[in-house]
Write the structure tokens for this entry.
Amino acid sequence: MPLLYALRDDLGLHGPRFGCGLGQCGACTVHLDGRAVRSCVTPISSVGKKKIVTLEGLGTLEKLHPVQKAFIEEQAAQCGYCINGMIMEAAAFLASNKGPSEAQIKQALARNLCRCGTHLRIVRAVKRAAASV
Amino acid sequence: MLLTKPTRRHFLKGTGILIVSFSLPSLSTTAFAQSGTPASSGTKTVALDDVDAFLAIDPSGSVTLYSGKVDLGTGITTALTQIVAEELDVPLARIQVIEGDTALTPAQGKTWGSLSIQNGGVQIRQAAATARHALLQEAAKRLGVPVEDLIIDQGTVRSRSGAAQVTYGELIGGKTFSLKLDKEAPLKDPATYKIVGQPVPRVDIPGKMTGQFTYMQDFKLPGMLHGRVVRPTGIGSTLLSIDESSVKDVPGLVKVVRQGNFLGVVAESEWGAIRAAQKLKVSWSDWEGLPEQSQLWEHVRATKVNKDDVTSNVGSAEQTLQQAAKRISSTYNFAIHTHGSIGPSCAVAEIKEGKLTCWSSSQATHDLRLQLAAMLSMSDTDVRAIYVEGSGCYGRNGHEDAAADAVLLARAVGRPVRVQWMRADEHGWDPKGPPTLMDLQAGLDANGNVIAWYSQLYVPEGAIGNVKLVAAELAGLPHETGMVPGNVIQNTAIPYAFPNVRTVAHRLAETPLRPSWIRAPGRMQNTFCNESFMDELAAAVGADPLEFRLRYLNDPRGVELLKRLASLARWQGRSSPGQSSSDRSSSDRMAKRETGDVATGRGLTYVKYELARTYVGAVADVEVNRKSGEIHVKHFAVVQDCGQIINPDGVKNQVEGNVVQTVSRVLKEEVTFDRSRVTSLNWASYRILTFPEIPDVDVELIDRPTEKPWGAGEPSAAVVPSAISNAVFDAVGVRLRSVPFTPAKVLAAMQNS
């Protein structure tokens, strides 16, 4: 069973979402030992003792992660269904890439799909977060 | 958990309906649905002429807005909250919103057509104005002062002169308004607005950024089972046989449900349902009823025309064409598109004691309720449909179909069932934006004046209504039979004052895939055809595309908009295609450059939505790679006038989104199919725009606080395709008349020129 179903159905988490089940859209992204992975195609058997962090674990309303804070400040969502993936991907990217260029940010998110067309705000939010992490 | 902890409960007096509300306005939209309230036999009014249908104020002064229009991710919850807060003079944080619940919210029509603010918001504003007026009258009576001496501040009415004051909560005293909505109730003067017109942050965003928001896809009921559908291998295939032994090892399998050609599986766990749907061995009949995709446009042209809609007729266009000094003819087409929601459609249904409750992300729960009742031959009074926000839909996607699937599965197993479509279900079975074909002809006189315009559109018949439910059709249960592509003949008529104009829509008896409205239905495709052809005419007479449009435009708001656009985009008058750097300005974005194989160009376009409301103009800057045929849209400048703006940041978000989504449609998107089925079943075979490919977008909004608020969710999608086509022509001198503008089409066009 893919990790996604354990997180959503067994643990009741809402952050990681089902989008394609094929690793194509990024809506299901979580961190495994700090690395952004697609939980819809990650067998639960492969997780072992690795540390899993979901959107809920990244930060809360009371204690926002800088990337979440930047997304709120930039109002970087429309329906927001993809945003879990955007934030988780961006947080993992920024953790190991300081002061990225706009082109690097876009490349880092190249495998995350958004349909509402919120891309411009998402890029602005990641830039804003990059300045604060 | 944060979301599920109610902080306030109250009964609507005399209704028996328990309203559960939450302290965080950011999370309130889905709160009611979240509470899992069953189908109600309560009697809260939902009548459109009752103030109580829209508004309730509890003794603490907390306001509940009941909206028939729902937030599809566009931010209207926030905008409607602003309208109510402004008109009632209460703080934003004191307002909660319940949307799209057939037992609680008025039937304000489908959430479509960029009408949520324009129609829905205006109704809600009038309800609030009626309430405000009544509250003032009551306060005057209680305080013993004339209404003229009263002011309202944060939900408290006080005398200007004295210390007397009374709160809304005290005035309403736990009662309902019991008032008819007064269409003449005085509205606040927009000059005094403090909340409407402000970029108020969206109430839903913090919850969405932290995993606290409950989407439809997150919604659960106690004892709920999980379902998945198994669709036919050909759209019209019939189910021959099922081998149930193929799934006997799936843990927690509850039932394989078959009714006619409707097939689904129900299991205790979601993964169990997915495994069962994957493993179930099914035999379907062969079916090859679709046309060859390579012959799609010939097929469209050969399809029987059931009727003609003449959308405009001035002078005698056809006759004048014959006498024109020069005639220009072109044919445009726009491929079949999917909605492309990132989250596949999802719904939960429960049938208990003869009553059906269905939670879904339907754009139209009041209509869905009737459809579900008809499907099951139930009384509609025994059906309640409740909206829960899901993944964005951009028109009528699969949300309603998933609802019908859940209903059939829930009925079969006698327990609540959640159905979420798999990716292939969504790409394969959501209804599609139909193929659009338009022939255009124009006549010019010897001086290069346009003297005639004649267009013929080929689109499926049908307009507004309910799209038939897949499950009902497959199961052989009652369902609609007609096509419902949306009002796709809008914006066939043109905004330009030519002496002879005839625009006709040939309404076709059929179309290959079940049609529905996709965002800006028809308006997007027809504006692509019209505004690209307009650019052809400008080029034919060597005119600057902007000056050429202004020549024929006698609408002051449209003229002002185009002038603002020229300024925003730093438009330099010239004809297309650009010839050399000498006829360009020195500005970087304007400069005509060829770098290696890459040519740059810019195109301009304009729309007055439905010729009746929101104005949009756009300038696109593109790069065209002559060698690869690839187009990169670098930049869009957009000016929009949608009248009174409720939330400028919300409108800007919609415009940015429309540009990016429609650039994706124009450059990449096309549903593919073989003779049996859709074959573009995932994001590898139906590609959409990715981050490295997005344009920069500059948006300028013209706010007109004293005008009516018009729609903003769709109109800016309409200008994108022609802006790109015109920019490509400017860059490389070839006219792209077929969406999507794939590299292969670009290369072919350049070879033929």
